[in-house]
Design brief:
4-stranded antiparallel sheet; about 30% helix; Rossmann fold; Dna Ligase, domain 1; globular; 3 domains; 7-stranded mixed sheet; about 400 residues; alpha+beta
Length: about 400
């Protein structure tokens, strides 16, 4: 029997986001992929109100049907930013009959989608704690969570993206007629309206008339303070590609063509028409494209991954008109639902292979970070104290 210590992986899921339920499913798919003989998985559930919990009952998806937080063994916790703790403080507000304890973590696996998890906020906390974590770092997470900023960065790098018009919720509430006039001066119908952030098609609407455009903007404005409008690609198809890697060592997956019942993949298409999340949606794999287009999309995906400082995994979505050799990068998902297991399976990866790879990439990225110098000592404080309250720029 081996005495090798099991690697401790904290899988964080749930979150204060409209994609909370999707994250619960992703988190359990991730936890189930880790082999028990090499890893010890610690579930960390962030409730809808932002409170953190851990405990064995959280590993059973069936417990989330009703009252999971009331089960014995579910305990409050928090992730400490103090590098001495290097993990969770369980029972942080312990009293006379219950003590706090520190649960050290080797690697954090965020399985969060959208706000307060996929947007750089959690990544910043993990950077402070100096704990290795799976996925994009703070900058890449924040950038790709914002569709407007992502398009600016990709366009600057020469990667094809659709034309767009974006505006603030305040401008819409105060000058809606002006916004509509500007949109109609630039684009013809049909149009897509999107919140600048979020995923899973939440808040996205298609507009074919001015009335539908106004209604779609009203809906999107409930989800974000900035709204993006893009022209629809008629006669096109959606094509998705996943990328995994870090730095210059990146690999693109087999391509897929999702098949939707509607004009675009709605939340219901992605998650509610089957029993296994995106994995169960109808799709064509590999996508029925000419080899030249397939290779171009795979190469563009790797380039885009690097432009936004990608690491770990992403699913990159395209709008393609194969008859015209025309394609546009539509979105970069830094924590795709189901981790795009269904795409990597076509390339010989099992779910276990994929999570092992992502953990190793997290450790590699952390090792690179530790090569940086963070402790730079000078005598500035001593000099400033001698000069008195005016500080280093004052005259003694």
């Amino acid at each position: 029997m081996s005495n090798r210590r099991l690697q401790v992986i904290a899988v964080i899921f749930g979150g204060r986001s409209v994609e909370h339920d999707v994250s619960i499913v992703t988190g359990h798919q991730v936890m189930n992929a880790f082999p028990a003989d090499a890893y010890r998985v610690v579930p960390v559930y962030i409730a809808r109100d932002g409170r953190w919990y851990t405990g064995e009952p959280l590993t059973d998806l069936n417990n989330f049907k009703d009252g999971v937080l009331e089960l014995d063994g579910v305990l409050p916790c928090l992730l400490s930013p103090d590098t001495r703790h290097h993990g969770l403080i369980v029972n942080p507000l312990a009293g006379r009959f219950r003590q706090s304890e520190v649960q050290r973590i080797d690697v954090v696996f965020p399985a969060l989608h959208g706000s307060h998890g996929e947007d750089g906020s959690l990544q910043g906390l993990l950077e402070l704690a100096d704990i290795p974590y799976v996925g994009y770092a703070t900058l890449g997470s924040a950038l790709t969570n914002d569709k407007i900023m992502t398009k600016m960065a990709l366009r600057q790098a020469g990667i094809p993206v659709l034309a767009d018009y974006w505006f603030s919720r305040d401008l819409w509430l105060g000058q809606s007629d002006r916004v509509i006039d500007q949109i109609l001066a630039e684009f013809d119908f049909p149009l897509f309206v999107k919140p600048a952030t979020l995923g899973s098609s939440i808040g996205i609407g298609r507009a074919d008339t001015p009335e539908m455009l106004r209604a779609s903007i009203d809906i999107a404005a409930n989800f974000d303070r900035r709204i993006l409008v893009e022209p629809a690609i008629t006669g096109g198809v959606e094509i998705n590609c996943s990328v995994i890697g870090f730095g210059d060592d990146c690999q693109a997956s087999t391509l897929e063509q999702p098949v939707s019942w509607d004009e675009f993949l709605s939340y219901e298409d992605k998650y509610l028409r089957g029993s296994e999340g995106m994995k169960s949606a109808e799709r064509i794999i590999p996508a029925p494209l000419r080899s030249e287009i397939t290779q171009r999309i795979q190469q563009l995906s790797i380039e885009a991954f690097k432009v936004v400082d990608g690491r770990g995994i992403a699913r990159i979505d395209y709008l393609v008109r194969p008859d015209r050799d025309e394609l546009y990068l539509n979105e970069i998902n830094t924590m795709p639902g189901s981790l795009a297991f269904y795409l990597w399976r076509e390339d010989g990866f099992s779910q276990t292979d994929l999570v092992r790879k992502l953990v190793q990439l997290a450790l590699d990225a952390h090792a690179v970070k530790r090569r940086n110098i963070y402790d730079y000592q000078t005598n500035l404080v001593e000099v400033a104290s001698r000069r008195g309250a005016k500080g280093s720029k004052g005259k003694g």
